[in-house]
């Protein structure tokens, strides 16, 4: 058949997880925690099912969850989105990203993507009949060069996509970045998609610069997040989108015919958790910072060179002292011969920098998992 997605194969996360399983490798590739979800969350899920929340919930999400999201947003970012008109609960951030793109991006439009970028962005753009315009982040710091973004804007530009904390690098956008974005988009018809799934995983006292903090940006932005990262349950696939009423209305047209609604019991469980234990998301940064620091310290005893990690749960490491292989070949070798699985960076780029020797390691793991990986990495 004539394929609609000629550039797409199986995602690198699936490829590497399968390779890890096939070779009994310690899997620091695909991003998921290997520890339990909070016990209270499981109790709340159980309770929701027993109390009968097992049929179609409202298309936009259960009211108690939308309300809890509004409360959390107001506490953290000083702006309370409208529970009815501005918040939509989705099947993970992935669904929300797909919906937001399809809600506003038309055939022939352009969408600016900052490379390296998470892998689900471009296929959704392609399926909308639009074109991704790739602008590279700084190869050393993964900071955006806003002049390059400005130069990439054309009359066809319909959307800019940003992601902070950033997957795969962990880089974070600053307040100055957000002000610059507001200036760039002022008096244009360009929408912003702000992927904030790692919003609570920020380190060293830094502040997450949600687009929701910026009134000018709020008017044109789809802010997307996911409970998978916050509650250690990437398999539950519940996320949400916050956007102004007119954008949410278009977003919901796609959502209602994509999935219509999403898993009801988990929505009730997250609503209860958000209200009862705000400490969980408030302390998530400290929780992961301890893991980051422990892992970095261990990596210093290997030939891998760790890069700074301002946020998120991924550690980039330079392997040029170990091998001259390209990153995909290096990751295959590392899995098969050395028993540790990482993610190569090249699949996150349209044009990967040819001299880059970086891999991504996930530290959302128990100490025992990290120790087992380090023991193997020390032998490189
Ligand atoms: N965006 C980014 C940057 C991510 O890292 C992920 C998950 N790996 C997602 C979106 C998708 O989130 P979800 O699993 O909730 O669909
Ligand atoms: N977001 C996860 C990561 O970056 C993977 C999710 C997936 O496998 N699609 O590793």
Automatic annotation (TrEMBL):
<protein>
    <submittedName>
        <fullName>Pyridoxal phosphate-dependent aminotransferase</fullName>
    </submittedName>
</protein>
<dbReference type="InterPro" id="IPR004839">
    <property type="entry name" value="Aminotransferase_I/II_large"/>
</dbReference>
<keyword id="KW-0663">Pyridoxal phosphate</keyword>
<dbReference type="InterPro" id="IPR015421">
    <property type="entry name" value="PyrdxlP-dep_Trfase_major"/>
</dbReference>
<dbReference type="GO" id="GO:0008483">
    <property type="term" value="F:transaminase activity"/>
</dbReference>
<dbReference type="InterPro" id="IPR015424">
    <property type="entry name" value="PyrdxlP-dep_Trfase"/>
</dbReference>
<dbReference type="InterPro" id="IPR051326">
    <property type="entry name" value="Kynurenine-oxoglutarate_AT"/>
</dbReference>
<dbReference type="Pfam" id="PF00155">
    <property type="entry name" value="Aminotran_1_2"/>
</dbReference>
<feature type="domain" description="Aminotransferase class I/classII large">
    <location>
        <begin position="26"/>
        <end position="377"/>
    </location>
</feature>
<dbReference type="InterPro" id="IPR015422">
    <property type="entry name" value="PyrdxlP-dep_Trfase_small"/>
</dbReference>
<keyword id="KW-0032">Aminotransferase</keyword>
<keyword id="KW-0808">Transferase</keyword>
